[in-house]
Write a structure and sequence with these properties.
The chain has about 70 residues and is α+β, with helices and mostly antiparallel strands. It contains two helices and four strands.
Length: about 70
Amino acid sequence: MLISDTGVPRHFIEIDKWGSQTMARLQDGWCAALDRNTLKCTIYDNRPWVCREFKMGEYECMAERAANLQIE
């Protein structure tokens, strides 16, 4: 959920059924701003607050990646 304005480009924002702004996700659940080849954020300087708090390579990050890989 986007809770502050960090400059996320509009085409990466979706509105959920409650009217909240969220990051767009592709059909497989991965963030639309993630470069699949490098696994780097394509909007890093404008990434949402939650992404700034979610540190790459930490336990939560690795658990989320593992969960997404199992879905594919």
